[in-house]
Amino acid sequence: MTNDSYDARGNKDASLGKDPGRPVGTGVGQVSAHEKTRGAPGEPFLIGETMSGGYGKGPDILHDCTIAVNEGEIAVIVGPNGAGKSTAMKAVFGMLDVRQGAVRLGGEDITALTPQARVAKGMAFVPQTSNIFTSMTVEENLEMGAFLRHDDISRTMEQVYELFPILREKRLQAAGELSGGQRQQVAVGRALMTQPKVLMLDEPTAGVSPIVMDELFDRIIEVARTGISILMVEQNARQALEIADKGYVLVQGRNRFTDTGKALLADPEVRKSFLGG
Ligand SMILES: Nc1ncnc2c1ncn2[C@@H]1O[C@H](COP(=O)(O)OP(=O)(O)OP(=O)(O)O)[C@@H](O)[C@H]1O
Ligand SMILES: [Mg+2]
Fold first, then answer.
1. d(CA 172, CA 252)
2. Ligand 1 interacting residues, C-beta cut-off 6 A
3. Ligand 1, atom 4: closest residue by C-alpha
4. pTM summary value
5. Would you give per-residue pLDDT tens digits along the chain (277 residues)?
6. Which ligand 1 atom lies nearest to the CA of residue 233?
7. Cα separation of 29 and 24, whole Å?
């Protein structure tokens, strides 16, 4: 695991990732120093490596697909509809039978773990659809996010409200009554309640206006600056690659292009085929 870019991003503020009330590396959402030392030198913090697999007994959707993110960085997956972006996220989170390949977190092989066990290891996932409880209040949604924790969650909730002030205002309102952009904030906030080391977001800006999208991306950058790794699927490819340390273009379940966000944005072939010129 390299910390160069982590430092370069100025990730000094650990307020969201680490609760001062809890000793570092001992609770839910923290990976112990022991586990960290098991990573191969230079290996990304989270990696789904050469993953192949599909749904049930169906054909493989992913073919030798590799997705990774470094500590405190933003990795973005883009590609056409049906390319397997959501499937790759599910594979990394343990919701899909990976027939070939492996998933490692902090150097530990977690390929066989259930999604719930991965949450306990510090992973949080906001799926593309049905990512909030619409009949519950905003605050109840956040409380549900902390279901695995047994410590005081009030500080983390305060941090979520600081990140998304509108949620404090609406905290007693049913989440289903919120706007699309506000709902996405609830979904991200709920995921942050586990104090994750890695936050996985499948199209967090789906259906929101460009202004709300920019705002949400700013908040996501803020989260990354606290040291949390972000692995994100985005339909707004150009804007997402602008904030990405690393970008993955997937086509038909395979890696087509992998580079820094900047390099992908500058690549004529990527621009022509995937960014509308
Ligand atoms: N639950 C499922 N059962 C069977 N096949 C599925 C399932 N979900 C997705 N697929 C198939 O897997 C392929 C990849 O779908 P996936 O949802 O991963 O694409 P995507 O890149 O996320 O697309 P989009 O941009 O539309 O969200 C598609 O052919 C789809 O039909
Ligand atoms: Mg999808």
1. 43
2. 55, 58, 61, 79, 81-87, 128
3. 55
4. 0.87
5. 444 433 334 444 445 654 444 333 333 344 444 444 455 678 999 999 999 999 999 999 999 999 999 999 999 999 999 999 999 999 999 999 899 999 999 999 999 999 999 999 999 999 988 899 999 999 999 999 998 888 999 999 999 999 999 999 999 999 999 999 999 999 999 999 999 999 999 999 998 999 999 999 999 999 999 999 999 999 999 999 999 999 999 999 999 999 999 999 999 999 999 998 7
6. 22
7. 10
At residue 74, the 3 state secondary structure works out as: strand
Helix (H) / strand (E) containing 105: strand 97-105
In which order are the strands placed within the sheet that holds 229-233?
Answer: 123-126, 198-202, 229-233, 74-78, 246-251, 254-259
Which residues does residue 250 pair with via DSSP β-bridges, in sequence order? 255
Distance of CA 81 from the midpoint of ligand 1 (Å): 8
- Catalogue the long-range contacts made by 86-89 (C-beta closer than 8 Å, 24 or more residues apart): 86/127, 86/128, 86/202, 86/233, 87/54, 87/55, 87/61, 87/62, 87/253, 88/48, 88/51, 88/62, 88/250, 88/253, 89/125, 89/127, 89/200, 89/202, 89/231, 89/233
Is residue 11 helix, strand or coil? coil
Distance CA 84, CA 63 (A): 10
CATH superfamily of 4-274: P-loop containing nucleotide triphosphate hydrolases (3.40.50.300)
